[in-house]
Design goal:
With 258 residues, the chain is α/β, with parallel strands linked by helices. The chain is 37% helix and 28% strand. The chain contains 8 helices and 12 strands. It has helices at residues 42-50, 74-79, 97-112, 121-134, 152-166, 182-195, 234-243, 246-257; strands spanning 4-13, 16-26, 31-35, 56-64, 67-68, 82-85, 92-96, 145-146, 170-174, 201-206, 219-224, 227-232. The strands form 3 sheets. A 6-stranded mixed beta sheet has the order 6-9-10-3-11-12, sandwiched between helices. Strands 2-1-4-5 form a 4-stranded antiparallel beta sheet, with helices on one face. Strands 7-8 form a two-stranded antiparallel sheet. Strand 11 (219-224) and strand 12 form a beta hairpin. Helix 3 (97-112) packs parallel to helix 5 and helix 5 packs parallel to helix 6. It is globular, with a radius of gyration of 19 Å. The N and C termini lie far apart (40 Å). Keywords: ATP-binding, Nucleotide-binding. This is FeS assembly ATPase SufC.
């Protein structure tokens, strides 16, 4: 099992500390959600975990299994099984979904075996067809240029298809619900649920509870002022939806005063 373990993580951007001693463990086989108001460091955490160069880790460690990933490049993190679904996926004109996915799958295979010559085309086509059918996607989608002219829902579905093909150990979904209508949200959530299992840990980062109506989390965390300040089961998300975050702030202030 390759759990993701974050210990005393401090992260700065342009000299300003955003993440301030965060501790969190995401076991494979579990779905965890992080909620919190704007500006608390949720997306900073996601990009830091994936190795964005603008985010400076000043203290702490992040373990994937027994490996401290902080010294690894973003592509190396991806090859060992960490996946990030972006809030705003970029388009890549001239590169089809199928060609992009085949290159990504081959990179993962070669990370495990440098002598691997890549997935045979017939095998890849069969696998892609199976995953697209599993996610209820039109096969013609594979021939389109990645994210070019895609709707918000199509971009997010393309991210979930990447996750299905790459079979990561840990998937980080950074505000996947952003910009989606109800139908697109349901379709994307069904895709995530279809991939749930003992070999996949999922971290869902969101402002709102609505995606958690479809992707039921095992644990919900509240992030505020750069750290995890509250954790609970799925009922915590419902409580936040009804009462907001003010009660969390008051509890922190009272605790600090005490």
């Amino acid at each position: 099992m390759s759990d993701l373990t974050i210990r005393n993580l401090h992260v700065s951007i342009a000299g300003k500390e955003i993440v301030k001693g965060l501790n969190l463990t995401i076991p494979q086989g579990e779905v965890h959600a992080i909620m919190g108001p704007n500006g608390t460091g949720k997306s900073t955490l996601a990009y830091t975990l994936m190795g964005h160069p603008s985010y400076e880790v000043t203290e702490g460690e992040v373990l994937f299994g027994d490996t401290n990933i902080l010294g690894l490049s973003p592509d190396a993190r991806s090859r060992i099984g960490i996946f990030l679904a972006f809030q705003y996926p970029v388009s890549i004109p001239g590169v089809t979904v199928a060609n992009f996915l085949r290159s990504a799958v081959n990179a993962r295979r070669r990370a495990e075996n440098p002598e691997d010559k890549g997935i045979p085309i017939p095998e890849f086509r069969k696998l892609l067809k199976e995953k697209m059918a599993y996610l209820k996607m039109d096969p013609a989608f594979a021939g389109r240029y990645l994210n070019e002219g895609f709707s918000g829902g199509e971009k997010k579905r393309a991210e979930i298809l990447q996750m299905a093909m790459l079979k990561p150990g840990i998937a980080i979904l950074d505000e996947t619900d952003s910009g989606l209508d109800i139908d697109a949200l349901r379709i994307v959530s069904e895709g995530v649920n279809a991939l749930r299992g003992p070999d996949l840990g999922v971290l869902v980062i969101t402002h709102y509870q609505r995606i958690l109506n479809y992707i039921k989390p095992d644990v919900v965390h509240v992030m505020m002022d750069g750290r995890i300040v509250e954790s609970g089961d799925a009922e915590l998300a419902l409580h936040l939806e009804e009462h907001g975050y003010e009660w969390v702030r008051e509890r922190l202030e009272n605790g600090a005063a005490a």
